[in-house]
C-alpha cells in the first residue's frame, strides 16, 4: 500500500482542522485553559496565527469530550464551552445598513443572538447520552413555550431547535429583502428573550443542572458596530453564574469597548485581557520553548523520533563559519577588555559574532545558508503560523523529490540546503506580494499606498543592512521605535503602518522605554523579509529609534533612512523583543 501523504506541519486555520488533529496538535497552556474555564469574562488579543482560535476550539466541549474519551475519563459538565465563529455569512450580513439606526441595532442583535443560540444548541447536541432518562417530548414543549418558537414535532429536540433557528434566520432575511415601506420584523430576539431563556431551560436537563456556559466568540472584530456594542453590554452584565464570554479579537483595529448605552467596559473590572503574544514572550512561557514543543508534538504524531534540532539541522559549513566568527569576536573582546569580566566578554560576542560572520563574507559570495531550527524560530517573528508555513513547504519539497519507490520511507530530516532554499523562496514571494498584490489583498489599501509600503520596507532593509555591516554599537538591531511624530504627514504614515500590520508584514509590541516608568510601542518587521536581502533574522536586544518624518520620506519619496553610526538603542533584558531564546 502506498503511504498516504501526511505533512505534519499543517498550518491551515484552526477552524479547518478536524477535531482529532486539534487534540493532537494543540500544546496546552495551563494558564489559557484556566482563564477560559473560569467564570470571568475573558478577552484574548493577538495577531492572526498566534493561536486564538486554536485555544478556543481546544477548550470547546466537543474537543473536551473527545479528549476525555481518549484518556478514558468522563467529560466535565461543570463548564460547557461553546465555540461561536463570527467570520460567517450570518454575521457578515450588511442589510442592517438599509435601516434606521434603532432598527439596525435591533436586527443586528437578532442575528448575533441567533448565531449564539445555534452554537449553543449545536454544542449540547453533541453531548453523548445527554437526554437519557429525560422526557424529550415534555422538554421540547418547555423550549417551545419559553422561547415562543414552533419546533417541528417529527424531529428530535436539538435537531428541531436548529431547524427552527435556521427558519428564523430565513424569515428575517426575507423581511429585510422585501423592502416593504415601514415593514419591520417584530419577532426579533434579544439577549434576554433568546439566549438567557435558552441557557436557563437547558439547565432543566439533569446533566446540565449546574453547568456554566462559556460563550466563546471568535473573530469578534468581524462583528458590525451595533453587534460590538451589544456584546460589550452583555459583558458588562453583573451576574456570571450562568454564562460568561470568552472573546477573541485581532490586535489590528480592535473593537471599541463602548456598550449600547454609551458606557465603557474595563479591563480588570468587566473582563480580563489576555495578550496571546505577551504570554509567549515572558521568561516562563518563552516563544522558543513553545515553538519547540509544537514541532516536537507534530514529529511525534507521525512517529519520527527526532528532536526539532535534529530534524532541522544547521548546515555544517554554516556552523563552521559561525564558529570562526565567534572566535574572531572573542579575540577582539579580549583585546578590548584585557581585564574584563565574563559578562563583558559574552556580551561583546553576543553583539558582534554574527555581525562578524556577515561582514567577513566576500561581496561576491552567494546569500548565507539559512538553516537550523533556531533560524526557523527567529524567522517566525513570534507567530506560530509563521513557523509552521516554511516547515510545511520544506517537508513537501523533500517528499516531492523522493523517488516513487522511496515514498513509503520516513523523512528523518530536512537537509540544510532545502531549508535555505525554501526560506529564500518564501522571502522572495513575500516581497513580490508586497510589490504587486498588496492592494488586492488588504481592504482599504490603494495602489499608491501599496507602493509606499514597499518603499518603506525596502528602505528599512537598506538601513538594517547598513547597520549590520557598519554600526559600531548595535549592528543586529532589526526592530524600531518612532520618534518625533508631530509632523504634517503623520496621519498618512499611520495609515501606511496600519496597512502593513493588516498584511502581517509588521507587528507591534510594547516594552519599557528609556524613560523610567514609561512604556512605548515598537515595531517588528516580519523576519521572513530578511533572507531575500541577505540579512540576519537573528536580531539582538535593541531598538532603532527612527524619526517619523524619515519613515514618511522613505515611503513617499524613496529617501534612504539615515543612520547614526554610534547611536545607543539597547533596552533592558527583553528576550530579543520577540520572545525568542538567543
Task: Please characterize this protein's 3D structure.
- This protein is α/β, with parallel strands linked by helices.
- The protein folds into two domains: 253 residues, no CATH class; 218 residues, no CATH class.
- Helix content is 47%, strand content 9%.
- It has 21 helices and nine strands.
- It has a five-stranded parallel beta sheet with strand order 2-3-4-1-5, with helices on both faces. A two-stranded parallel sheet has the order 6-9.
- Strand 3, helix 9 and strand 4 form a beta-alpha-beta unit.
- Helix 1 packs across helix 4.
- The chain is globular.
- Structural class by helix and strand composition: alpha/beta
Any low-confidence stretches, pLDDT <50, length ≥5?
Answer: 281-285, 567-582
Range of helix content: 40-55%
Estimate the mean pLDDT confidence.
87
Q: In what order do the strands lie side by side in the largest sheet?
A: 2-3-4-1-5
Domain tally: 2
Radius of gyration of CA atoms, rounded to a whole number: 27 Å
Number of helices: 21
Order of helices and strands: HHEHHEHHHHEHEEHHHHHHHHHHEHEEEH
Strand content: 5-15%
Total DSSP E strands:
9
Shape: globular
Taking the alpha carbons of the first and last residues, their distance comes to 44 Å
Largest sheet: 5 strands, parallel
How would you sum up this structure in a few lines?
This protein folds into two domains: about 30-280, no CATH class; about 285-315 and about 370-555, no CATH class. Helices cover about 45% and strands about 10% of the residues.
Amino acid at each position: 500500500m502506498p503511504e498516504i501523504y501526511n505533512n505534519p506541519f499543517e498550518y491551515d486555520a484552526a477552524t479547518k482542522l478536524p477535531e482529532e488533529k486539534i487534540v493532537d496538535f494543540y500544546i496546552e497552556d495551563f494558564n489559557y485553559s484556566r482563564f477560559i474555564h473560569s467564570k470571568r469574562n475573558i478577552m484574548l488579543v493577538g495577531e492572526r496565527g498566534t493561536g486564538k482560535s486554536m485555544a478556543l476550539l481546544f477548550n470547546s466541549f466537543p474537543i473536551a469530550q473527545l479528549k476525555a474519551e481518549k484518556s478514558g475519563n468522563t467529560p466535565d459538565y461543570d463548564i460547557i464551552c461553546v465555540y461561536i465563529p463570527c467570520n460567517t455569512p450570518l454575521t457578515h450580513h450588511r442589510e442592517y445598513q438599509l435601516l434606521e439606526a434603532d432598527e439596525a441595532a435591533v436586527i443586528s442583535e437578532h442575528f448575533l443572538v441567533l448565531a449564539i443560540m445555534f452554537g449553543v444548541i449545536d454544542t449540547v447536541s453533541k453531548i453523548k447520552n445527554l437526554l437519557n432518562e429525560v422526557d424529550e417530548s415534555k422538554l421540547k414543549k418547555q423550549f417551545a413555550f419559553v422561547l415562543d418558537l414552533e419546533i417541528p414535532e417529527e424531529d428530535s429536540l436539538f435537531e428541531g431547535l436548529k431547524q427552527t433557528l435556521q427558519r428564523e434566520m430565513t424569515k428575517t432575511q426575507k423581511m429585510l429583502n422585501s423592502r416593504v415601506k415601514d415593514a419591520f420584523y417584530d419577532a426579533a430576539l434579544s439577549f434576554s428573550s433568546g439566549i438567557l431563556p435558552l441557557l436557563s431551560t437547558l439547565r432543566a436537563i439533569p446533566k446540565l443542572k449546574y453547568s456554566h456556559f462559556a460563550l466563546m466568540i471568535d473573530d469578534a472584530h468581524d462583528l458590525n458596530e451595533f453587534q460590538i456594542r451589544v456584546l460589550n453590554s452583555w459583558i458588562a452584565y453583573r451576574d456570571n453564574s450562568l454564562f460568561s464570554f470568552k472573546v477573541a479579537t485581532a490586535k489590528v483595529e480592535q473593537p471599541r469597548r463602548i456598550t449600547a448605552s454609551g458606557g465603557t467596559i474595563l479591563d480588570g473590572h468587566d473582563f480580563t485581557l489576555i495578550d496571546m503574544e505577551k504570554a509567549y514572550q515572558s521568561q516562563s512561557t518563552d516563544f522558543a520553548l513553545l515553538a519547540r514543543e509544537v514541532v516536537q508534538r507534530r514529529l511525534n504524531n507521525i512517529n519520527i523520533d527526532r528532536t526539532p534540532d535534529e530534524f532541522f539541522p544547521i548546515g555544517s559549513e554554516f556552523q563552521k563559519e559561525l564558529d570562526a566568527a565567534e572566535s574572531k569576536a572573542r579575540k577582539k573582546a579580549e583585546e578590548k577588555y584585557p581585564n574584563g569580566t565574563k559578562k563583558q566578554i559574552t556580551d561583546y560576542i553576543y553583539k558582534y559574532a554574527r555581525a562578524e560572520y556577515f561582514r567577513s563574507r566576500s561581496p561576491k559570495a552567494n546569500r548565507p545558508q539559512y538553516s537550523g531550527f533556531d533560524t526557523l524560530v527567529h524567522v517566525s517573528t513570534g507567530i506560530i503560523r509563521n513557523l509552521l508555513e516554511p516547515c510545511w513547504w520544506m517537508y513537501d519539497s523533500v517528499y516531492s523529490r523522493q523517488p516513487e519507490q522511496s515514498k513509503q520511507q520516513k523523512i528523518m530530516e530536512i537537509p540544510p540546503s532545502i531549508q535555505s532554499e525554501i526560506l529564500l523562496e518564501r522571502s522572495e514571494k513575500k516581497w513580490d506580494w508586497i510589490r504587486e498584490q498588496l492592494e488586492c489583498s488588504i481592504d482599504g489599501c490603494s495602489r499608491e499606498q501599496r507602493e509606499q509600503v514597499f518603499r518603506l520596507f525596502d528602505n528599512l532593509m537598506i538601513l538594517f543592512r547598513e547597520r549590520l555591516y557598519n554600526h559600531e554599537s548595535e549592528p543586529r538591531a532589526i526592530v524600531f521605535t518612532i520618534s518625533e511624530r508631530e509632523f504634517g504627514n503623520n496621519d498618512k504614515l499611520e495609515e501606511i503602518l496600519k496597512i502593513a500590520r493588516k498584511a502581517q508584514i509588521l507587528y507591534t509590541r510594547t516594552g519599557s522605554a528609556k524613560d523610567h516608568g514609561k512604556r512605548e510601542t515598537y515595531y517588528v518587521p516580519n523576519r521572513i523579509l530578511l533572507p531575500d536581502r541577505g540579512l540576519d533574522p537573528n536580531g539582538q536586544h535593541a531598538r532603532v529609534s527612527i524619526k517619523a518624518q524619515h519613515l514618511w520620506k522613505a515611503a513617499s519619496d524613496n529617501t534612504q533612512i539615515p543612520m547614526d553610526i554610534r547611536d545607543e538603542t539597547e533596552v533592558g533584558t527583553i528576550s530579543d523583543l520577540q520572545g525568542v531564546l538567543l
